[in-house]
């Protein structure tokens, strides 16, 4: 995604990394989840409005054909 505003990127990255690790993803998997989350965040303006939904992150992971972990693990967050 195009970088529109870096505001909130670090916060969304750390939050997603924490969530991924809490769900039992290994470090590499949690980092991938976090980086995809932050990629969406920087593509939008503002801090709160730029934070993606879980479905948006899953869609980006699918669009980029990420297969480092079974995305159904994220269903626990729904």
Question: How far is it from the N-terminal to the C-terminal residue, by CA?
Answer: 25 Å
User: Which bin fits the share of residues in helices?
Assistant: 40-55%
Low-confidence stretches: none
**Fraction in beta strands:** under 5%
Number of helices: 3
Can you put this structure into words, describing what you see?
- The chain is mostly helical.
- The chain is built from three helices and no strands.
- Helix 1 (9-22) packs antiparallel against helix 2.
Summarize the structure.
The protein is built from 3 helices and no strands.
Blueprint (SSEs and pairs):
Elements: H1 9-22, H2 27-42, H3 54-63
Helix pairs in contact: 1-2, 2-3
Keywords:
78 residues; 3 helices
């Amino acid at each position: 995604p195009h970088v529109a505003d870096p505001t909130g990127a670090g916060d969304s990255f750390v939050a997603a990394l924490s969530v991924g690790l809490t769900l039992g993803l290994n470090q590499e998997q949690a980092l991938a989840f976090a980086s995809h989350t932050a990629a969406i965040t920087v593509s939008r303006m503002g801090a709160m409005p730029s934070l993606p939904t879980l479905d948006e992150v899953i869609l980006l992971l699918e669009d980029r054909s990420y297969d480092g972990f079974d995305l159904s693990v994220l269903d626990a967050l729904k």
